[in-house]
Specification:
alpha/beta; Immunoglobulin-like; 2 domains; four-stranded mixed beta sheet; 22% helix; 32% strand
Length: 120
């Protein structure tokens, strides 16, 4: 088959797929892809203090302070464990993770994890 014929056949197939709604569905499935969110711990604060995440997203907490820290859910449903300077912990977001969290070593340090089941 000649290159021109191959190109025409490819374009015709792509056009038919778009007309059938295949490409819009593909775009929607890409929007629902899990995100990677980062919270930096610095100067005895969580940055950002409020995280808006979807179920399946991952959150990485990174300690930039000299002192050790944790990110611990109120009620202890989840915990990053002790993070020394430069260490990090990654957790995958679940529905049960929604709510306030704090540092076990510095209880005045507070954050909030808002969990949504809907894509942005």
């Amino acid at each position: 088959m000649r290159p021109d014929a191959i190109r025409r056949r490819f374009l015709a197939t792509a056009a038919a797929s778009a007309a059938a709604g295949f490409l819009p569905r593909l775009a929607l499935s890409m929007e629902g892809k899990p995100r990677r969110l980062v919270v930096e711990i610095e100067k005895l604060r969580f940055h950002p203090q409020r995280i808006e995440a979807r179920i399946g997203d991952t959150v990485t907490w990174i300690n930039r302070d000299i002192a050790p820290h944790t990110a611990t859910a109120r009620g202890d449903a989840w915990d990053t464990g002790k993070l020394a300077k430069g260490e990090s912990a990654i957790l995958t977001v679940t529905r049960e993770m929604a709510g306030e969290y704090y540092c076990r070593f510095h209880p005045a340090m507070k954050g909030e994890l808002v969990v949504s089941e809907e894509p942005d």
